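Intended use. Records like the one below are meant for learning the mapping from a protein sequence to its folded structure. Do not use them to infer anything beyond what is encoded.
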Amino acid sequence: MEFCINEAPVYMATGGKEFDPDLPTVLFLHGSGGDHRTWALQTRWFAYHGYSVLAPDLPGHSLSGGRAFTSIEESAPWLAELLDRAGARKAHIVGHSQGFLSALDFAKHHPERVLSLTAVATAAAIPVNQALIDTAKESAAKAAFMMCNWGFGPNAHMGISSVPGMQPIAISRAIMGNNPLAADLQACADYVAGGDIAKSLNIPVHCILGTADKMTPLKAGKALAESMQCDATILDGYGHMLPLEAPKKTLAALRKFIQSIET
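Structure written out for the chain above:
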């Protein structure tokens, strides 16, 4: 699915089925340096089980043109326009890492359009080491190599993959190394409003967290869940890249939460 926002092309995966605005919409937002492929398994399941799916490449990422967001605050009006163009009035929003910060800011400005909010491997604030930002400015590929070394849990580093013959670490390096990592990381580092927004939410919320997450540690994820007064699904032994390294378990948690709201 493609259209233009701010005179720039936007690509959105729809899980392999044509988008139907009359079905409940699930909007998936990728993290720093990512794209729609973050959600390959999850989008397909929802698209074939009674939902419509939107998984955009955010501006400047992979198949979408334009300039990458320089702040999280820029994403809220863009997401509102995206839903308008697709014909979706409301959506269940699922955000991984930086994507959840964008979801939080959207929920602040458009709470009436959010059916539920799911935080995946993230926190209310994502401090970023300045050395990593500087590395990303010099070379996105070098920063992607560092982030994938830290971001994936021990099973992925041992070559264990949910898709035989495919290595999610290598795939993620290739994707992230060609996307605007420096802008993404700086936007995360600069965003300070997340904590207050999380405390003020009055919508169904859930957290999916990994015990081996080195980028947004479990302690920070638990603090987010506590501030939103919600339960957390904790996946033992998995790191920051949960949608890719634990796709089936991430999907199971999403299904349970979103279906509980729809039924």
